[in-house]
Write a structure and sequence with these properties.
The protein has 222 residues and is α+β, with helices and mostly antiparallel strands. The strands form three sheets. A three-stranded mixed beta sheet has the order 3-5-4. A three-stranded antiparallel beta sheet has the order 7-6-8, with no helix packed on it. The protein is elongated and about 60 Å long.
Length: 222
């Protein structure tokens, strides 16, 4: 259990006076400790006020802080984790973002730095629920490094974050098109249309017209 700090203790933060009132100043490390244990300073934790102010702002934007898909944390908990990782890994310099769950996406998550907004995939994390914090941290890096370039990889390695999500049969979209080789009858399910493609088993590595794949199945438009 975390040690309680007395207001008189030197480690509780330096004091300063403003308008006749005394305030305590806290280092980044002390603020991080407060995030880990909100009751560290009794009923008046500095970061607790920050989290609640974020909560009020998001509620004002129409965000349901108590929304939570089955077996996943509430949205309010996502904001708390965001603040925690922001302080720990980015010196608190990341902008405030909108956090939400997506029931439509099959990927682990997405980040839109210009909005800014981070979405976490419900289907993915209901299968790999232990990866939720890893995904959140991965998408937070995208706020600074949009592409999976060397800078992104260096930050991910520093934070111990995965570069790629896992695969699972339930996370695959149904094929929109099915192609077949006219010679060996091998089928090729695909999301996009083929144009000039021949069977990989029958051709010699280059396109051969006699082995050109033909469309034999197509999903109906919704």
């Amino acid at each position: 259990m975390a040690r309680r700090l007395s207001p008189k203790s030197p480690s509780a933060g330096k004091s300063s006076k403003r308008n006749g009132k005394t305030f305590r100043r806290f280092s980044l490390k002390q603020r991080f400790a407060q995030l880990l244990n909100f009751d560290l300073f009794g009923a008046d934790p500095v970061m607790d006020g920050r989290i609640h102010s974020i909560s009020r702002d998001r509620q004002g934007e129409g965000v349901d802080m108590n929304a939570a898909p089955e077996n996943l944390p509430e949205v309010g908990e996502l904001y708390r984790l965001f603040d925690l990782f922001n302080l720990l890994h980015f010196d608190g310099k990341l902008p405030n973002v909108r956090l939400s769950y997506s029931t439509r996406m099959l990927s682990a998550g997405s980040c839109s730095p210009l909005t800014p907004e981070i979405k976490l995939g419900v289907r993915y994390h209901q299968i790999f629920h232990e990866e939720l914090t890893d995904t959140l941290k991965h998408e937070m890096i995208h706020l600074v490094h949009y592409y999976h370039d060397a800078a992104f990889q260096a930050k991910a390695e520093e934070m111990g974050v995965s570069m790629h999500a896992q695969s699972h049969p339930d996370l695959r979209r149904p094929s929109r098109y099915v192609y077949e080789c006219p010679e060996c009858r091998k089928t090729y399910p695909r999301q996009k249309r083929f144009r000039m493609v021949s069977c990989g088993d029958c051709s010699d590595g280059s396109f051969e017209k006699r082995f050109k794949l033909r469309l034999v199945g197509q999903a109906k438009a919704c």
